[in-house]
């Protein structure tokens, strides 16, 4: 049993992948911003802005993971795990803000004539798409392995950046192929990208908000734990079963029915046996509260 609601090795992995994303984004902001300015592409500049928000939100995720890894204290007896989904919610809000800013400025640029983007901007965008997709897959894999909504949110932020870059690539390609009259194609691409970003923000927000609200986690393992509890001697049935996720770990409350003729000491021993069986089967379970009901 760890002394924190957030297993140290999981927190460490999450922090490491988040830091990698921060340093990659710092480089991409500079490359995309300078290239967009020199190449007369607002879509690429908007892409740089999206990467800049990636840096800020990744810092939020890192802070959230660090906070969630703190040990329980007097004011937080269940630990600080809620900081982790809270960080993910803040990421989703930042994404919506970035999407609105990009959309507003895209509309403004569409209404003002400007030069066709330079061809070399396509090379930069192609590289960015590849880098961002690799980063997304790496971080998303870690997020799944450690069951972190904040790390998953950070991964999806990278995916939204890849989508923004891809739409910019398509828009600039249309402008270059179409020639005069198609100058605003990359602005339309940036506007389209803002829609994709909002959709991704929702996918980040929904599970994180559910976790904050103690929504029952998805998955079949809940039924599996009921079966495990039933394997304990003298357990006749499961009356109630509740699960909530805090950080990377789970808290379980369940009522088990046992023969009414058993003594208090025997019932107490059965409760400990049920708890031990569940926690041995599922290391991600932090605590199990067992209530004994007479059959």
Please give a structural write-up.
It is a single chain. The protein is mainly alpha-helical and 295 residues long. The chain has 2 domains: 8-212, Cation efflux protein transmembrane domain (Alpha-lytic protease prodomain-like), CATH 1.20.1510; 221-294, Alpha-Beta Plaits. The protein has helices at 8-38, 42-68, 83-110, 120-146, 149-178, 185-212, 221-230, 264-281, and strands spanning 237-246, 249-258, 285-294. The chain has a 3-stranded mixed β-sheet, with helices on one face. Helix 5 packs antiparallel against helix 6. It is elongated, with a radius of gyration of 25 Å.
Topology:
Blueprint: H1 8-38, H2 42-68, H3 83-110, H4 120-146, H5 149-178, H6 185-212, H7 221-230, E1 237-246, E2 249-258, H8 264-281, E3 285-294
Parallel strand pairs: 2-3
Antiparallel strand pairs: 1-2
Helix pairs in contact: 1-2, 1-4, 2-3, 2-5, 2-6, 3-5, 3-6, 4-5, 5-6, 7-8
